[in-house]
């Protein structure tokens, strides 16, 4: 068993996940928000603008970076640039 440090709150927990059980729900909410953004803004001029994604979804750059590394967002992530969120 390995202890992981939660990417969101910094607490330690035993799991293979990036976030602790308390934060999983927050992650899921933000992932849904990101999916909605993608659905609703796909034809928008600022669709692939990272600052626009952040201001529309309220997701922090760190968390956004983590979500975009997931397979389900790989197309979107590849369009948005070079993973340069900072
Ligand atoms: Zn946490």
Topology:
Layout: E1 3-5, E2 12-14, H1 21-41, H2 50-57, H3 61-68, H4 74-80
Antiparallel strand pairs: 1-2
The chain binds zinc ion (ZN).
Description:
The protein is mainly alpha-helical. The protein has one domain (23-86). Helices cover 51% and strands 7% of the residues. The chain is built from 4 helices and 2 strands; from the N terminus they run ββαααα. It has helices spanning 21-41, 50-57, 61-68, 74-80, and strands at residues 3-5, 12-14. It has a two-stranded antiparallel sheet. Strand 1 (3-5) and strand 2 form a beta hairpin. The longest helix is centred in the middle third of the chain and has 21 residues, at 21-41. The N and C termini lie far apart (33 Å). 10% of the residues are buried. The model has no long low-confidence stretch (mean pLDDT 90). Residues 6, 8-9, 11, 19-20, 22-23 line the site of zinc ion (ZN). Zinc ion is lined by residues 6, 8-9, 11, 19-20, 22-23.
